[in-house]
Design goal:
558 residues, alpha+beta, Phosphorylase Kinase, domain 1, 4 domains, five-stranded antiparallel beta sheet, four-stranded mixed beta sheet, 24 helices, globular, Kinase-like_dom_sf
Length: 558
Amino acid sequence: MLRGVEIVWNLGLYWSNLVYDFLVGRDEEVVPYRARQLRNLLCDLGPSFIKAGQVLANRPDIIREDYMNELCILQDDVPSFPNQIAFRIIEEDLGQPLEAVFSKISSGTIAAASLGQVYRATLRATGEDVAIKVQRPGIEPIIYRDLFLFRTLASFLNGISIQKLGCNAELIVDEFGEKLLEELDYTLEARNLEDFLENFKNDPTVKIPQVYKQFSGQRVLVMEWIDGIRCTNPQAIKEAGIDVDGFLTIGVSAALRQLLEFGLFHGDPHPGNIFAMRDGRIAYVDFGNVAVLSQQNKQILIDAVVHAVNEDYAEMANDFTRLGFLSPGTDVTPIIPALEAIWQNSAGKGLSDFNFRSVTGKFNQLVYNYPIRIPERFSLVIRSLLTQEGICFTMKPDFKFLEVAYPYVAKRLLTDPNPALRERLVQVLFKDGLFQWKRLENLIVLAKENVAKMSSNPALQVKNTQSQRDLKVERKLDLTDTIKDGARLFFVDEGIRRQLLLALTEDSKLHIEELVDVYRLVEDQIDIPSVAVEVARDFPTVVRDLLLSWSESVLSDG
């Protein structure tokens, strides 16, 4: 009850100041001061509120941009707790003295966050340098108590939040609480680390630290020390002679792989959690906050990209409903012209002028004008993309995020054997029943660009031949499976066959020139005899599928 009184009194006092500012007509001019005041208030109220502030810093559907920018400071600047308390917690979790496991440990914290802090140490048994992440003392009951109070307060404010913001306050608290409780369990973070290690095990451009589970527990996490340069210091990265273009390219590609390929992505990739290794690789730390996208959501995101390419804004609006931004049954008709305006204004000038921050700014206005609520997992997606784009701009102000992202998506569409992606490729290549020759050429050019950039990256210049055999390094655009699937589709799918034949004979002329142009783009990327052999091997399967399709059509006609 006392904690509830403390929270209500402090927040009520702050709210009354906002009301007073509004009544005397100075609400806009004092925004920087009030934003700073809010940040300090959250720090004073403790870890739960610091974490809430970090979440609000990435929720444009709840809080305005100037407040978001101020609250972003909470992601990097949090007071630490005393070393003797931290060391006692480590020993309690280890079940033995520090000296038995570590030959030395840093005298001060390397980093401090809302839920814990980090030390550098050396393992006595192996001499390896490690990072020790230790949880703040007595934090669990504090978090449970505050979450209960948050939920109680949300139940009182729910009607107002639905009416004014178009979002359910109780649902927002539930999503926040779920993620926060996950972060309290360091054994879960250890499992996240193992999942990331598995996902990137064959990627020579990404470094994920090894976790030492034998020394870790619910309150302590011991992991490999990352000897790199934090992205908080872009000047040091440049002075170290690291290829900035190459580093940013692998960073964007790694982010997109997490989002669109693995469906498991880092939820807090701020500059302090991302390192540039001296050999050009990118390294991630702090895996307490990760988010999972279902296979369905990954496919809908790719659908949204396809619909954007095809300028199909009605389907883009429907994608919002399918992703949970809009309640089922919401009339999307008024949103369609707004989406069209946002996309055309942002992408109409070309890739060179496109950035996610400008799109997000326009999207924020859309959020306030329509009943849109950003689900927690997608607020993390937005934060992830914005944060990583911000890192790119800090290190290279003229960096074009989409000039890396588009080639990656093009390569995925052209080479991924996933049936769902094959279907999306067909949607991209056909518009209004007509085959888009120019679009196919653009996809191939972009995909080749992605392969060329990645294969020439300094991080791929591996000296150890065993490592070269183990790691997956693509030197050419491998279209073998795509050509096989295309040949199968041509023979089996009557609709596709008709459309392709029409594309070759459109306007009463043979489009041999377009076919030749496409061939010239891929001739240096594919081994024709090998592809022919693969297609021939697949021929019996194609014949079987063709016979099955023919028999089904005969039976249905009968």
